[in-house]
Amino acid sequence: MELTEARILVAGATGALGGAITAQLAGRGARVALAGRDPSRLARAARAHPGVPAIPFDAYVPESCARAVRDASAALGGLDAVVVAFGAVAFGTADEVGDEVAEHLTAVNHLAPAAFFRAALGVLRPGSAIAAVTGAVAERPQPAMADYSASKAALRAWLDAVRRETRRTGVRVLEIRPGHLDTGFAHRPVAGTVPPLPQGGDPRHVAAAVADALETEAELVTTSPDGTPVVERRAR
Ligand SMILES: NC(=O)c1ccc[n+]([C@@H]2O[C@H](COP(=O)([O-])OP(=O)(O)OC[C@H]3O[C@@H](n4cnc5c(N)ncnc54)[C@H](OP(=O)(O)O)[C@@H]3O)[C@@H](O)[C@H]2O)c1
């Protein structure tokens, strides 16, 4: 995909990784629309990109996800890509994490991205793309993160299946599966306390890899053990 003038909705643009992805895409000439939950953080994110659409949504309200896609498409005159970069985490052993927290993680990390993409697949044309951040836990589930790992693995499975569906329609599916990043995300859990974590990678490097992957129609971004992003042409 040529990023110059590409019309791209970034959902979760108020987050550290979402903000870095937005900056990368805008820096390469894309016309971005931002979607976020917290109104003041959304207004602050939009100030960095004067004149861009800034659209509120809550991942816990599926209709607001579909509405954000419709609003972004109307504001930009169509869409060429939708990038989902929001998410929530909780820590604790399986018996400590309650049903409500597990349901929250499933809603925010799996069902809400699916709601964005369901709406997007109705308007995206051949050559366009959907992209979502899962995480290394989607591949290697971690103790004290069973429900977080399961929600990300569910999103990964959903993306894998949709990638096979959309081969005939020409819509690309990009999974962004980084290891731990230094964004503060792990210190903002909806429940539990963060366990000791290694030094994380730089989200700006992952954001650059995401832009590279969109430009080259790659299917996967991972990170190597030292945090260096890796763009992989085919998902695995
Ligand atoms: N940091 C890591 O180590 C790491 C590693 C692998 C994958 N990831 C994934 O990367 C993504 C971005 O995380 P980050 O590191 O950039 O952390 P972050 O800065 O805390 O960003 C989290 C984002 O998710 C949004 N969000 C949370 N709950 C929401 C809800 N109910 N409705 C709408 N938005 C909601 C937040 O919105 P508000 O601004 O409204 O709070 C924020 O924009 C997440 O999916 C995370 O699972 C992170």
TrEMBL record:
What keywords would UniProt list here?
Answer: Oxidoreductase
Query: Pfam families, alphabetically?
Result: adh_short (PF00106)
Known EC number: 1.-.-.-
Q: Which InterPro entries match?
A: NAD(P)-bd_dom_sf (IPR036291), SDR_fam (IPR002347)
Any one GO MF annotation of this record: oxidoreductase activity
Source domain of life: Bacteria
The record's listing under SUPFAM superfamilies reads: NAD(P)-binding Rossmann-fold domains
Describe the family membership recorded for this protein in Swiss-Prot or TrEMBL: Belongs to the short-chain dehydrogenases/reductases (SDR) family.
* Name by which UniProt lists this protein: SDR family NAD(P)-dependent oxidoreductase
